[in-house]
Amino acid sequence: MHAMQYEFTLPVGYGTDVIRERVARTGHLLDDWPGLGLKAYLLRERGVHGSPVDQYAPFYLWNTTDGINSFLWEGAFQRPTDDFGRPAVRQWTGLAYEEGGAARSPARTAVRRRRPVPEGMPLSEVAAGAVRETERLAGKKGTLLAAAVVDTARWELVHFSLHAHDTPREGEGDVFQVLHLSAPERARLPRGRQW
Question: Which of 115, 151, 165, 169 has the most CB atoms lying inside 10 A of its own CB?
Answer without folding.
Answer: 151
